[in-house]
Input
Amino acid sequence: MVPVVLYRDEALVLRTHKLGEADRIITFLTREHGKVRAVAKGVRRTSSRFGARLEPFMFVDVQLHVGRNLDIVTQAETVQPYARAIFADYGLYTAGAVMLETADRLVEAEREPSVQQFWLLAGALRALSEHAHAPGLVLDSYLLRALAVAGWAPTFSDCARCGEPGPHRAFSVAQGGTVCPRCRPPGSTAPAQETVDLLAALLSGDWAVADATDDRCRREANGIVAAYSQYHLERALRSLRMVDRTSPAAPASALTGPTAARPDGDSPAPSPAPPSATVPAAPSSISATEGALHGSHPNP
Output
């Protein structure tokens, strides 16, 4: 008789796939076991004991049975119901969807512990759900820090190529940060110094500086962060184009769209790809964004 092997771990739900008539494959980012995919049986039935606990954005304490190909969820207890607040707000939802997709990309190998990425994502989701800062700022800060943990830390002071002390005017996505005039490659952008200060604050977690910035700096910083992220991830983030960057009354995140050319002839900061002057209507956009979190999956 084969012994039953069980283990417990804290986990964040990254995404789900439908499986069969009532099951789902859940992708977790766990604290001790890294990324784990497991089957949750019967969670799509209304009578499921823990179906609502296994939705994207949830922070759970989960018990799993080690399977041949995929593990099996046998128990799940809520640690923090981040999904409740995030699903209720379109801006939070779209920003959070980018975070989950980014974490899924950065932690590629399964069952390899990635404790820093786990706690970084948990902290970002907590900040979103508690409305601690503007969603756009939380998202940009998370992207910069997650890339830094993965080995792609940008520099916003010294030259990224030769190390010459800054501040420097130009920023190069390919070089990994600000560059001096001697090292500046073609196609570099020339963001305002206030924007560079904002980026440095987002990377270091200086929220007093970040929260005090205006919409122009946030727009420009958002374009740089989006370009930097997708360059190092080597493919577009599907959910990024749906991020709500409007700021009608609340403390605000940046607007999407191309940045106007500077009068001195320098290139503008890049905009999120693909750029869009308007934010799609919430219902259809949420449906599109859900493609990165929910999906169909063939029977294994």
About this structure: The domain at 84-291 is CATH 1.20.1440.120 (de novo design (two linked rop proteins)). The radius of gyration is 20 Å. The chain has a mean pLDDT of 83.
